[in-house]
Design a protein that fits this description.
Number of helices: 17
Shape: globular
Strand content: under 5%
Distance between the termini: 65 Å
Radius of gyration: 22 Å
Amino acid sequence: MSAPGPAPAAPRAAAATAPAASDRRRSGALVASLLGFTVITIDVSAVNIALPAIRDSLSGGMAGLQWVVDAYTLMFAALMLSAGALADRAGARRAYAWGVALFTVASLGCALAPGIGVLVAARVAQGGAAAVVMPASLALIRQSYEDVRARARAIALWTVGGSVAMAAGPVLGGLLTDAAGWRSVFLLNLPVGAVILGLLVRVERSPRRPAALDAGGQLTAVLALAGLAFAVIEGGHLGWTSAPVLAAGALAVAAGYAFRVVEARHPRPMVPLGMLTDRRVAVPLAVGFAVNAAFYGGIFLLGLYYQQLRGMSGLEAGLMFVPMSAVVTATNLVSPRLAERIGRRQVIVVGQLVFTAAMVALLPLSAHTPVWLVLVLLLPLSIGGALAVPALTALLMDAVPAERAGTASGLLNALRQTGGALAVALFGTLLVSAGGGFSLPGMRLGLLAVAAVLVVTAALTRFLLRRE
């Protein structure tokens, strides 16, 4: 006969253990998602600082450097449309693991690239993998946090990680490039990828939801973005009326129209066009495009400005972004609280107007602008996106049902990456002077173009979104 005393305590102990285990799984999912989002974001801004070293090592001109950046961001943007559906269909955890594994292998390919062509090809693979990682990471958070307030805090932390990574990437890129060469920027991704995969083992399996993989829509999206990027990048080098540029522009228009037709006729399109009629979806997408155009374009511009016009080393150029990193971090932490107090719409509008001020504030930059003044002028650039992105991301996630979280995340980040890619293409084309040097008039024209886009999206936010 067994002793009677201890038996009743077992169920209570099991009940007490269950919430703790659930909390650990949620924390593991958040940490894994945050790390992945951080590493794919760092890869963008860190590579920007390494561009002059890549040019010297692999003999690439401005067009080659633009393709090193945009090969990643364009594939990131285009494939993210299908990647959102993949996250829903395969399950967020499985899709995330696939994406991280491919990103890690592609990073090794970048580090070992013997020439600019191979590097661009490896960057394409990196961008495709990042396209899977981004929506899957956010969908993993969405399914792990059912409580709206807890989910909002988790999304805010996720956004903080990405914003800090984007701002801190130039510092890390400059440090690694000067200390160990530009290839070390990519090698850093290998141990991080291994850590993420280790964390995912303990994360609860994700449910699979029906989501069609739309091959026709995906193909037309890739063709449209590739044609548009080629036209913008090569237009400044081959001439805007050259046959290849005109052909690329025509391809972009035709493929864009075909994309709309395919999606309208597909029984289960990867981009449900009806979703875009909801203002709470359409406006955040437009804002995401504009904010990333300003931020990616600004980082690309300043990295070249510091090194080509002012003659700074990679490390010195990277250190110029340190104050920016601190301000981005602080602003991201304040943004959710500010949104609760004055409303998400107001925060998104203010963020865009601050970003517009940042573009205008950079107009007086020259080769002789005091360093302290340059740092002061960067403050609006640090604050604008950090205010707007957490609020617009949370607004979008609350506007769609749980089963559309991956698709909505893919749409948002596809538009954000497209904005960044086109800004890099535009700035790269305008920054080259007739003699091959850094063009200050071209820089100012690009800044004004981005500022105009931000003013338009701020007006859309103000008048099309209801108060919330």
